[in-house]
Amino acid sequence: MSVIVLEDAIKRYHTGGEIIEALDSVNFRADRGEMVTIIGPSGSGKSTLLNMIGLLDTPTAGRVRLNGRDVTDFSTDELTEERRSDIGFVFQDYHLLPMLTATENVELPTMWDTEVDRRDRAVELLNRVGLSDRLTHKPPQLSGGQRQRVAIARALVNEPDVLLADEPTGNLDQDTGATILDELTRLKESENIAIVAVTHDEQLVEYSDRVVELVDGTINT
Amino acid sequence: MSRRHPLRRFPSALMAWRNLGRNRVRTALATLGILIGVVAIASLGMATAAIQQQATANLEGLSNEVTVSAGPDNPNDGISADQVDDIERLAGDATVVPERSNVTTLSARNGAETRVSVTALTKADAMYNVSRGSISNRLRSGALLSQADARRLGIEIGDPVTYDGKIYRVQGILSSSQGIGGQQRVLVLPLSAMDNQNYYDSVTVLAEPGQSVEALTANIESSFNTADEDIVRVRNFAFVQQNVGSFLSTLRLGLLGIGSISLVVASVAILNVMLMSTVERRGEIGVLRAVGITRGEVLRMILTEAVFLGVIGGVLGVVVSAGVGVILFEFLLGSPLSAFRWQSVQYLLYGMVFAVAASSISGLYPAWKAANERPVEALRD
What we know:
The complex is a heterodimer of chains A (221) and B (381).
Chain A lengths: L3 E12 L2 E13 L4 E5 L6 H8 L7 E6 L2 E2 L5 H11 E4 L11 H6 L11 H10 L15 H13 L5 E5 L7 H17 L3 E5 L3 H6 L2 E6 L2 E3 L1
Parallel strand pairs in A: 3-8, 3-9, 6-7, 7-8
Antiparallel strand pairs in A: 1-2, 1-4, 4-5, 9-10
Helix pairs in contact in A: 4-5, 5-6
Chain B lengths: L10 H12 L1 H40 L1 E6 L10 H11 L3 E13 L5 E9 L2 H4 L2 E4 L9 E4 H7 L6 E4 L2 E9 L11 E5 L11 E5 L6 H12 L7 E5 L1 H43 L1 H9 L4 H38 L9 H30 L3 H6 L1
Parallel strand pairs in B: 3-8, 5-7
Antiparallel strand pairs in B: 1-9, 1-10, 2-3, 2-9, 4-7, 5-8, 6-7
Family (chain B): Belongs to the ABC-4 integral membrane protein family.
GO molecular function, one term (chain B): transmembrane transporter activity
Protein name (chain B): ABC transporter permease
């Protein structure tokens, strides 16, 4: 069964009296253990699609299913709850909190669940991405590649079913990008999760199991 | 290795604390604003408490007094002995002190001269307190002198003063705070010093606790005076205390109002600081929301920041105000520790409560605004 499914998803925006159709009847799915890459020119709706897969945005029409459950009509707080338990995010700009240590940044998504202590899992994840000697460093003391690895560890701390990556290698050089992609490929298998990435990066496409091309809000197959 | 932060069990508090630590100057300035507000409220409140205590202490001696003197229609040049008997009958348990008065010039051996009013009476112990010496024998032979004049003339206990050709030994120096005219310049002599006067200039009735000064006044008035004839003039000072009391309440309200304005200004500053810092952290808060932190948790985190500012500013303000209070009470009353009586120390509590309340209210809007930002939009820029 697919982890995340979009059925005939349509997204329309109203801007200045004009209606813009960002997504037009998009069907999408991602399964456990696969890396799906979404490519396409700027303004093709890649970010809108990723936001919808990440339950950050809801479609104007169509359905969204997470692990078989229809979450389309969930409230803001219910969607937040789903993101917290089932989805991990990796951003192009890492988006780590500068005043928290690497370990605390990894714990962040679960920080408010005071009854479950994810400290051990956070440390273990940081070990796994090769940052065992950077646990108490704060983001400004880390390199770009190290920051992105902290971000990946953060995306996995809640044991998600799907990990979403928005240009994960966009700010990294070729070599560092390759290590990050090796890391993601290993984690995809060991954690048995679906990875959905949005990119312009040819290198990332090589690591993908499947590529989806988006043009003008529709999927080119 | 995995050392836990002490606030780990309170994630909103931990995050708020870390956030405040990011821009220390801004945090310090916002805290300073609150501190000034608390000091304004608390020290103005404590100042009125000090003034009130001082006024109460000064007025205490007056509030139970009824003074009877000759009215315009009195046939005599004062109150006669018979009238004193009548007053005593009307006064019941109250102490009745008839007195004669005059003015004289006292001179010292060193040539210094001073003009004082002279009061001749019995029962001086009921009317006066001495700071040095004593009032023995109900003042049958000695004299009491006000502190200022004793100092000016270099007169000590046991020294002689002359009035009307007779010598009296000073046996007590009057305490300086005595009634409304605390620094009255007066020489107190036995009644016999003015035996040449037939009438008394005034009669003071000292009401016992529980006796109504107003009723006593009315009784004496109605038994001597008629609608057409004012034989005696009867006055009491209860109204003075009431007037001073209500004046002080107004003063206190006014001063607390001024103090509150500074706290309102401080909370506007907090509002500004919190709005700025949430706008700056817009993307960051978007990330929090994206990774599954709920709106309520974001709201609590930012509200906690505002509350921390209020608590830190409030605590520092209370410490500073307590210092100000001690200095105020030392200057106004001469007893610094009176600052910690409830009457004044309550303003420290009010200052603290106001500080926390004002900063919480100021934090509400920024917190609500940040919590309800859509993460998609916050992450876009």
